[in-house]
């Protein structure tokens, strides 16, 4: 009989291991629940790709080792002066476009990142066993972000911790996005503090997330408490930033004496989640419609239209998927970023509307709604699907014209598109906009099987 897995806490009796939310990182491959890119919707796609390997330690433990490939890897945002001197290695337990975005603005989305939801949850005790290199220029972090299930505003950041190795600082940060004061509790480590030298090998970092507070534990010792009530799902990120030039708090990797090895590493034995028997269940949006023929199931989709409303709306899908056929999602052809970001966004992203799902779904009909349809709506489109949302997109509805009949702002015209073959167990689809006004608009997308279309008058 195997020993039950327990958390490394002074009192661990009530915590129950959650294998479906945990990863022992025993290889040989990365669990497909992790997104193997680090916030690639904001960064260069290849530079965001996690470099990793599984290694066996002398004690027999297998660990995931994230590393920065100094020679073979580019900068995370080579086009942006503030971020073009560091490289990243990271995996995230949740992902989608417009993740980590806040209503006051952010970087334009420069790559589509498929929807991942394997590790998002609410409340519990979250633990990693890890080791990392010390020295200037490195910032390994184990952190959490809001999954933004219902609204963009559910996007707090919890660093638990972020470690700035230059000054031997463990930072336990709470970074709300909505203008609230952030809280940062900095714990120095190393000689002269009660904590062990965290550079010397594996240590255990734990975040207890209670409805009333967050507590950070290091090697079973409580080091920080922040009173805060976060009541929506968050997902974990495990990342290493590698700064080549000076960062005020982090330093730079050329400042190290002796020099670091070429590949900077962040090594994780496991990521474990525990809950108590009375931990409240995860919240999930209160959808109206079941996934059955005759219902509009688009309310369960993550629909990403690349445009102004998608950037700034507080609702998750903006005005494109709010159930109101007269509230309109306008795109605009240039983003708010650098020239290169704007070009990339316009050329690579502007002409796609991605439709992704929490679970596989069946559908045979897509209905587009538009007001002022003839002058603002897309004019020629096709529909494609992919098994993983990254590439190998195949056409399920070839290029065709949208024959809009009206051009009145007081009319929401519906246009029904029947797929040639019903989609079964689909998770990643997209509408490719072949022809449209430079700034195009739609008010709603409805999806389902045997669903009906209408035209609505204000
Ligand atoms: Ca392991
Ligand atoms: Ca709408």
UniProtKB/TrEMBL annotation:
Q: Does this entry carry the keyword Nucleus?
A: no
For the GH16 domain, which residue ranges apply? 1-279
In the UniProt record, does the keyword Iron-sulfur occur? no
Ranges annotated as spanning the membrane: none
Q: Where is this region: Disordered?
A: 315-340
Residues forming the F5/8 type C domain are: 301-450
- Enumerate the Pfam families for this protein: Glyco_hydro_16 (PF00722)
Name of the protein: Glycoside hydrolase family 16 protein
InterPro entries the record matches: Beta-glucanase-like (IPR000757), ConA-like_dom_sf (IPR013320), FA58C (IPR000421), Glycosyl_Hydrlase_16 (IPR050546)
Alphabetized UniProt keyword annotations:
Hydrolase
Q: Name one GO molecular function term.
A: hydrolase activity
Q: Where is the composition biased (Basic and acidic residues)?
A: 315-327
As for family, the record states: Belongs to the glycosyl hydrolase 16 family.
């Amino acid at each position: 009989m195997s020993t039950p897995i327990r958390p490394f806490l002074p009192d661990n009796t009530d915590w129950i291991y959650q294998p479906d939310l945990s990863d022992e990182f025993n290889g040989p491959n990365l669990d497909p629940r992790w997104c193997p890119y680090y916030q690639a919707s904001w960064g260069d796609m290849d530079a965001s790709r996690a470099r990793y390997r599984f290694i066996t330690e002398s004690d027999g433990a297998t660990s995931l080792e994230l590393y920065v490939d100094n020679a073979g890897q580019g900068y995370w945002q080579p086009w942006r002066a503030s971020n073009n001197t560091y490289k990243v290695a990271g995996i995230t337990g949740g992902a989608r476009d417009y993740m980590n975005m806040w209503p006051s603005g952010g970087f334009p989305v420069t790559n589509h990142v498929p929807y991942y939801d394997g590790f998002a949850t609410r409340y519990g005790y979250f633990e990693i066993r890890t080791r990392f290199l010390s020295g200037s220029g490195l910032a390994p972090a184990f952190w959490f972000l809001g999954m933004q299930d219902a609204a963009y505003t559910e996007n707090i950041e919890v660093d638990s911790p972020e470690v700035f190795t230059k000054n031997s600082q463990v930072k336990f940060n709470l970074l709300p996005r909505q203008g609230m004061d952030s809280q940062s509790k900095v714990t120095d480590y190393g000689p002269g503090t009660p904590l062990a030298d965290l550079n010397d090998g594996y240590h255990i970092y734990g975040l207890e997330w209670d409805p009333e507070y967050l507590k950070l534990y290091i090697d079973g010792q409580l080091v920080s408490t922040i009173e805060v009530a976060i009541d929506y799902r968050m997902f974990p990120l495990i990342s290493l930033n590698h700064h080549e030039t000076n960062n005020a708090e982090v330093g730079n990797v050329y400042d190290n004496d002796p020099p670091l090895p070429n590949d900077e590493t962040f090594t994780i034995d496991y990521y474990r989640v525990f809950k108590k028997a009375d931990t409240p269940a995860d919240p999930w949006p209160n959808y109206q419609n079941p996934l059955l023929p005759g219902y509009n199931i688009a309310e369960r989709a993550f629909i990403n239209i690349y445009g102004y409303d998608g950037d700034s709306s507080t609702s998750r899908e903006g005005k494109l998927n709010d159930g109101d056929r007269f509230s309109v999602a306008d795109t605009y052809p240039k983003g708010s970023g650098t020239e290169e970001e704007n070009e990339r966004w316009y050329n690579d992203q502007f002409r796609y509307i991605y439709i992704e799902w929490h679970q596989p779904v069946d559908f045979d009909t897509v209905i587009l709604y538009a007001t002022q349809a003839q002058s603002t709506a897309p004019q020629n489109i096709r529909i494609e699907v992919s098994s993983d949302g990254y590439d190998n997109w195949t056409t399920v509805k070839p290029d065709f014209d949208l024959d809009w009949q009206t051009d009145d702002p007081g009319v929401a015209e519906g246009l029904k598109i029947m797929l040639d073959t019903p989609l079964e167990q689909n998770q990643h689809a997209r509408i490719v906009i072949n022809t449209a006004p430079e700034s195009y608009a739609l008010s709603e997308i409805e999806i389902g099987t045997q669903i009906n279309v209408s035209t609505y008058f204000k």
